[in-house]
C-alpha cells in the first residue's frame, strides 16, 4: 500500500519559501519570497490534517476547497490541484501572494491550535498556479455558445475582472470601462511589485482579452461616457469602481508641500516600474529618495508605503500609528518584513499638525489605550504634555479610503447610497435599487480585501446569469 501522503504535521515542521535577505530585497521591487520546489510544496501540503470540518475553508471568503487541493498537491497531481483551486477563485496566484492568510485560512488552521504550526496554504496556492501558467494549463474563456446578453462593468479591479471572467465563460458579451491606462485597479497601481509583480496581473489581463472581454481604458465615466449611455448599451451594468477617495486629516499645516496621499505615492512608484514617464516622481514630489519619510497609518496600505520608501532610497522611514502593535489592522507579517528592511514603527502616536510650508516635521501627540469601544478595541487617549516633533521631508497619508460621490459624479441622483457613501446593494444578488444595475467589491462593502472583491464579483455575475435565464423563460412562455 502506498504511504499516506497527508497527516505529516507531527513529523514535518512548517517551512515557508525562502525569503530574500533584507539587504538585497530592499533595493528592488521584486517579490521577496522564492518559489517552492515541487518536493517542498508536496511536503508542506502533506502537513494538512484533512479535517472533517476544515476551518481554513470556512474562513476563506471564497470557501476554496483547500484540503482537497492540498491533498492533490501532496500526491503530485498539480494540474488537478490547480483546476480545483480555479473552480472557486478567479485569481488564485494573486490571492496566494497578497491575501492576509494569517487572518483568514492559515489563521484558522486546526493543526496550529495543537501547536504544530499552520499549513503554508498561501505559498502552496501560489506555487500550484504559477506551475499551471508555466505548463499552459491556464486557459482563456472559450464558451460553447455565444449569448446575446451584454454586460458593462465599470472598474477593472479584482471584483470587476472576476465578474467579467465568469460571465465570458458563459458566453455573455462583456465590456469593461476603466479610468486608467491599464486594467487591474489597485492590483496594478496600488500594490507594490515586491508583493505582487506586475507581469502576474498583466498575464490575467491578456487572458481575459483572449477570452473575448472588451476593455475601454482611459475612459472616465461621467466625462468620457455617461452612466446612462452605459446602461442603454448593455442588458446589465456592474459598478466595481473600488474606493479611491483618500481620508483627510484635519490638522494645522495639512496642505503643506511634501504631504502626499498614499494612492498617489504608490501609483507613481508602480508607473515608474512599468517604465512610464511620471513627472511628479522625477521632480521629487512623489519620490522618497534622500528624504526623511513619515507614513501615517497602520493598515496594509501604510505597510506598502513604508516599504516602497525604503526601496526608493529614503534616509529614514518611520510609521506613526495611534494604537500598539497588537491592535493595528495591517498584516503582522508585513510589519515584520518592514522592520527587517529598516522601518521604525512609532506606536501610540498621532499627528496633531505639520511644520513648514514645505513640510519639515510632524507635530506628534503621544497616546495610551483606554477603555474598549463598541467593537471591543481599546480607544486611543491623548497623553497631555507629551507632544514632540518628528522630523520629516516627505509625509505620506495612509489613513484609508472612502467612496467617491458617484450619484453626483455620474449625474445619477436616483442611485441609492448608504450613509457612508457606498452603493446600496443586496449582499447576495448585489443588485442596486436601479433595475439591472449591480455593485460589488469596495464600492459596496467599503475598503476591504481583494479576496472579498473577487467573491462579490463572482456572486454578482451569477445573479446576472440567473436574471438573464429568468427573462429567457418568460420570453419563451
UniProtKB/TrEMBL annotation:
GO molecular function: 4 iron, 4 sulfur cluster binding; metal ion binding; oxidoreductase activity
Key words of the record: 4Fe-4S, Iron, Iron-sulfur, Metal-binding, Oxidoreductase
Domain FAD/NAD(P)-binding: 151-457
Annotated Dihydroprymidine dehydrogenase domain residues: 26-136
Name of the protein described by the UniProt record: Dihydropyrimidine dehydrogenase subunit A
Record InterPro entries: DPD_II, FAD/NAD-bd_sf, FAD/NAD-binding_dom, GltD-like, Helical_ferredxn
